[in-house]
Known about the structure:
The complex is a heterodimer. In chain A, 32% of the residues lie in helices and 22% in strands. By secondary structure, chain A is α/β, with parallel strands linked by helices.
Amino acid sequence: MIPTASMADIAFLLIIFFMLTTSFSPVRMSVDLAEATTWEEVEKTAAILAINPQGSIEVSDGIAPGTIINTMDELDIFVKEIVTVDPTRQFIIKADRNIRYEAFNGVYEILRRNECRRVALLTEAKLAAQP
Amino acid sequence: MADIAFLLIIFFMLTSVYSSNFGLQYGLPKNEDPANVQPLESIHVQIHALGQYTVDRRPATLPQIAGYIDEKLRQNPKKPVIVQTNPDVPYYATIEVLDMCKQLKVENISIPTGSEMEMWRAFMGGIAP
């Protein structure tokens, strides 16, 4: 017989663990990230710029839900507003692994033009690699 | 109660798998005149349209590039690495090179923008560095 009396207690402990460790991304765009064997944890409050395989761009300041950007001018305004408030703010580029480099370069140029200092390229952990 | 608890556990287990918070961090340089940059003193890795690589203009595979960079870093640990990618190449190819540089603990990685490359070409008289 398996003792089940403590089952509910264990379940609640697991719930608390997952509630504390889970973080939800404000950007809903689904992308297939490139894999890397080296990585560092990115800031939870960083602004996010997501690029999907079709080249659509969704942005979020890290708190508000993501919005779709239609032109590069809109992206430029979004980046400028964030950098004006906090010049040291980190930007996360969450790009699909199969987009053409040109699509990444368009976003990267805008970050450079607005004198952003800290960028993280979001990747997925390659299995059996060092943390 | 226990059923609800287990449903919540399953929900958090599934959603936590999809949240990724890891990446390659990269400090961007100040915008400066390309005439002040010394590309000849750097290691220049190029990713070409068909997925071939060159390092300092010599064709090479990724492991060969890693060996080349490692050897140069032994002589000068602060040696900069410039990673230039063709606009048609898939983005993951750049990540592979950047990941390799991070593994080799390259301190100074530079990713020139398309317009910087154009300015460089103009400065070097039409020849890419």
